[in-house]
Amino acid sequence: MSRQEILDRFRAQVAAGTPIVGGGAGTGITAKSAEAGGIDLLVIYNSGRFRMAGRGSLSGLLAYGDANEIVMDMAREVLPVVNHTPVLAGVNGTDPFRDMPRFLAQVKDAGFAGVQNFPTVGLIDGVFRANLEETGMGYGLEMDMIRAARDLDLLTSPYVFDPEQAKDMARAGADILVPHMGLTTSGTIGAQTALTIEEAAVKVQELADAAKSVNPDILCLCHGGPIANPEDAQYVLDHTDGIVGFYGASSIERFPAETGIKKQTEDFKAITFRKS
């Protein structure tokens, strides 16, 4: 599907009152299973590979591999097993070793329908973040990447972390905005430090309102922090206006793997045999 066809489908879905649900896929089986469950949008990026290897999602922000090379390698595993769901690539827009417009053309040629800005320096704060901005590796490069992707007619779904970023990404041509509430909580390798769900709902609304002040037609989903399970997403949607869905990564693939494999193993351990 083209970018416009995807957006037309999503807007019709929203008009019918059906939320948009996007999910991260770190493996082919995740993508196949999520599609079977009716996922609307899939995103693959380096943290998915690390996450499904048992490492925390923030591994994707550290020097454990070339993020843009990893996502192209993951494409060979994921794209062939997805039949009708748009798949986005998580692109490291601050990568100083890529000619970004040329790389985005390769992303499109590989079969991706769009992009997301991940890894993102938006998850980094403090002096380290200030130094990244001062030395030419700041969030502005991620906005440039989204703008270049839009020029190539790729669907764009960036993460944003504050109202100014939300406005800037809307100006850059973001189609689907994802206010990011931080590293997802819950599970065996989830965050312990996070906003409350009440605080997250307020912040999601603030970022969505900022983006909509620039582009009233932008679609806004919620993600991260305490928004970990379906009931959390329902709380946010019940306490916000104009938030039309949820995007989950750990929530879609890590939690089910952790709980499902553990439960299946426990059930097998409970079987008995006849003693002679």
TrEMBL record:
<dbReference type="InterPro" id="IPR013785">
    <property type="entry name" value="Aldolase_TIM"/>
</dbReference>
<dbReference type="Pfam" id="PF09370">
    <property type="entry name" value="PEP_hydrolase"/>
</dbReference>
<dbReference type="InterPro" id="IPR051353">
    <property type="entry name" value="Tobamovirus_resist_UPF0261"/>
</dbReference>
<dbReference type="InterPro" id="IPR015813">
    <property type="entry name" value="Pyrv/PenolPyrv_kinase-like_dom"/>
</dbReference>
<dbReference type="GO" id="GO:0003824">
    <property type="term" value="F:catalytic activity"/>
</dbReference>
<feature type="domain" description="TIM-barrel">
    <location>
        <begin position="5"/>
        <end position="271"/>
    </location>
</feature>
<protein>
    <submittedName>
        <fullName>Transcriptional regulator</fullName>
    </submittedName>
</protein>
<dbReference type="InterPro" id="IPR009215">
    <property type="entry name" value="TIM-br_IGPS-like"/>
</dbReference>
